[in-house]
C-alpha cells in the first residue's frame, strides 16, 4: 500500500479509488505554514474547485499535486499511488495557469506537441493527437500560428490543448480565466466544462471567483487561511454554508445578530439586534447568541404571503429589469440587502416596506461562526461529501 511506484498508470475500468487523495497534508514555506491538515479525496472524473481568498493556499495545494512544492507532512496519492517521492516529470499531470505560459517562439503545433514529444510518442500519432486537441478547443488548423498571433482567449485554449493532449490522469487549472475579459471568461467556463465532460478527465480548478466555482464545479472546497472550511456541491456550500466565512465568501449574505428569546422545542424566536424578531425551526436555549444568515435572493419585498416578516426603510434601489436590489434599513444600524423579483411598482428610496423570508431559508451560526443544525427536514444540510474527509462541521 505504501509503495511509491514511480509510474502512476491509468486506472482500469470500475476502479473506485480516488483520482487524487490528500491525507493530512501540511505545506510550509520556511517557517510559514501555508496549508495545514488538509485532507481531501477527489473522485475520478469529477470537477473540483478550490475556492478562497488570495493567499489561502489554493495554488500551493495545486502545485503539491504536480510536485512543484514539497509537502512537509501527510501524503498525496494519485490514482491510488503515493507520489511523495515521485518527481514532477514522472507525474502524469496536465497544467494550465493564469498566464498561458506558451513557448513564444514555438508555433501552436510545437506548443501542443510538447508533452507528446517529451513522452516519445511516434510522429504520426503526435500529428493526429495535436489535430484532435485543437479540434477540441475549437482552434483547428491553427498549427502554424505563433502565440503572438492569437488573442488571450485563443492562447488559453492552446494552453488547454497542450495540457490535455497527452491524456493526463489529472488536469490542474490555476485561475485559467482570470486574465480574460468578462465575455471570454464566460465562454471559456462553458468550454472547459464541456471538454472536461467529454474527456472524463479529473479536473482540479482554482479560483477566487465564486460565480466561476458555483457554475463549473461538482464539488467546491472552500479554503480559508490554509485550511478547508467546507466541502460540498455548489448548492450545499451556497445554501447551507458551514460557517460565517463560507456564507460571506460565497456571494452576499445578510448576517443578522440576535439572541434567542423563546423556544418551544420546535420553533425558536430570535430577537435581532435590529429590534425585530425572526422565527426559525430549531430548538435553542433562550439567551443563546446566534447570527441569522439569509441570502438577498431569499428575501421578498412588498406584499408576501407567509414566513418571517421584517419592516424597514428603503435606503437605495437598483432596478435591474425583472428584479431589483434594495438596501433596507431595519433599525439598530442594520442594513440588509434584498434581491427580489418585482411584482408591482419598484419601492422608492425612503419608502417603508415589508420584507419576508421563509424560515427554511435561514442558516443559524453560533458565536464562533459555525452553523447550528436546524430541525431535520427544515433545511438541507451541508453534508460532508462522501468523497472527502470531514471539513469543519457546525
Ligand atoms: N514561494 C513562497 N515562499 C514563501 N511564501 C509563499 C510562497 N508561495 C506562497 N507563499 C505564501 O503562502 C500562502 C499561500 O499562497 P498561495 O499562492 O497558495 O495562495 P493562493 O490561495 O493561491 O492565493 P492567490 O489567490 O493570491 O493566488 C500565501 O500567504 C503566500 O504568501
Ligand atoms: Mg494562487
Strand order of the largest sheet: 6-7-8-3-9-10
Distance between the termini: 34 Å
Q: Could you name the CATH topology of the largest domain?
A: Rossmann fold
Radius of gyration: 25 Å
The H-and-E topology, N to C, reads as: EEEHEEEHHHEHEHEEHHEEEEEEEEEEE
**Could you give a short account of the major beta sheet?**
6 strands, mixed
CATH class annotation of the largest domain: Alpha Beta
Global geometry: elongated
Helix coverage percent of residues? 10-25%
CATH superfamily of the largest domain: P-loop containing nucleotide triphosphate hydrolases
Q: How many separate helices?
A: 8
- For the residues shown, what is the average pLDDT? 88
Bound molecules: adenosine-5'-triphosphate, magnesium ion
Strand content: 25-35%
What this model shows, in words?
With 394 residues, the protein is an alpha+beta fold. It folds into 2 domains: 220 residues, P-loop containing nucleotide triphosphate hydrolases (Rossmann fold, 3-Layer(aba) Sandwich), CATH 3.40.50.300; 121 residues, Nucleic acid-binding proteins (OB fold (Dihydrolipoamide Acetyltransferase, E2P), Beta Barrel). The chain is 21% helix and 33% strand. It contains 8 helices and 21 strands. The strands form 4 sheets. It has a 6-stranded mixed beta sheet, with helices on both faces. Strands 13-12-11-14-20-21 form a 6-stranded antiparallel beta sheet. Strands 15-19-16-17-18 form a 5-stranded antiparallel beta sheet, with no helix packed on it. Helix 2 crosses helix 3 and helix 2 packs parallel to helix 4. The longest helix has 18 residues. The two termini are 34 Å apart. The N terminus and C terminus are likely disordered. Magnesium ion binds next to helix 1.
Amino acid at each position: 500500500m505504501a509503495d511509491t511506484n514511480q509510474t502512476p498508470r491509468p486506472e482500469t475500468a470500475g476502479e473506485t479509488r480516488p483520482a487524487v487523495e490528500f491525507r493530512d497534508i501540511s505545506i510550509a514555506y520556511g517557517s510559514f505554514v501555508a496549508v495545514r491538515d488538509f485532507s481531501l479525496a477527489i473522485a475520478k472524473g469529477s470537477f473540483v474547485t478550490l475556492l478562497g481568498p488570495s493567499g489561502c493556499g489554493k495554488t500551493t495545494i495545486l502545485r503539491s499535486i504536480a510536485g512543484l512544492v514539497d509537502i512537509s507532512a501527510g501524503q498525496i496519492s494519485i490514482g491510488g499511488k503515493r507520489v511523495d517521492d515521485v518527481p514532477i516529470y514522472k507525474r502524469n499531470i496536465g497544467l494550465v495557469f493564469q498566464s498561458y505560459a506558451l513557448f513564444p517562439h514555438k508555433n501552436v503545433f510545437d506548443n501542443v506537441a510538447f508533452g507528446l514529444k517529451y513522452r516519445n510518442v511516434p510522429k504520426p500519432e503526435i500529428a493526429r493527437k495535436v489535430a484532435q486537441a485543437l479540434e477540441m478547443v475549437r482552434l483547428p488548423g491553427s498549427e502554424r500560428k505563433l502565440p503572438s498571433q492569437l488573442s488571450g482567449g485563443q492562447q488559453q485554449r492552446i494552453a488547454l490543448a497542450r495540457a490535455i493532449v497527452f491524456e493526463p490522469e489529472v488536469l490542474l487549472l490555476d485561475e485559467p480565466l482570470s486574465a480574460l475579459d468578462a465575455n471570454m471568461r464566460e465562454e471559456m467556463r462553458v468550454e472547459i466544462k464541456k471538454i472536461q465532460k467529454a474527456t472524463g478527465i479529473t479536473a482540479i480548478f482554482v479560483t477566487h471567483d465564486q460565480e466561476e466555482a458555483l457554475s463549473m464545479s461538482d464539488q467546491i472546497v472552500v479554503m480559508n487561511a490554509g485550511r478547508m472550511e467546507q466541502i460540498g456541491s455548489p448548492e450545499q456550500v451556497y445554501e447551507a454554508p458551514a460557517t460565517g466565512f463560507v456564507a460571506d465568501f460565497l456571494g452576499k449574505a445578510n448576517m443578522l445578530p440576535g439572541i434567542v428569546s423563546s423556544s418551544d422545542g420546535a420553533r425558536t424566536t430570535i430577537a435581532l439586534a435590529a429590534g425585530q424578531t425572526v422565527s426559525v425551526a430549531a430548538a435553542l436555549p433562550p439567551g443563546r447568541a446566534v447570527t441569522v444568515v439569509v441570502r438577498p435572493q431569499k428575501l421578498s419585498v412588498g406584499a408576501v404571503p407567509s414566513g418571517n416578516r421584517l419592516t424597514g426603510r428603503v435606503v437605495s434601489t437598483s432596478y435591474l429589469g425583472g428584479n431589483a436590489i434594495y438596501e433596507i434599513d431595519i433599525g439598530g444600524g442594520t442594513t440588509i440587502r434584498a434581491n427580489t423579483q418585482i411584482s408591482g411598482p419598484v419601492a422608492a428610496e425612503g419608502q417603508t416596506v415589508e420584507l419576508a423570508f421563509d424560515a427554511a431559508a435561514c442558516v443559524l451560526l453560533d458565536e464562533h461562526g459555525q452553523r447550528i443544525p436546524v430541525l431535520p427536514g427544515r433545511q438541507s444540510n451541508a453534508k460532508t461529501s462522501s468523497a472527502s474527509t470531514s471539513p469543519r462541521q457546525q
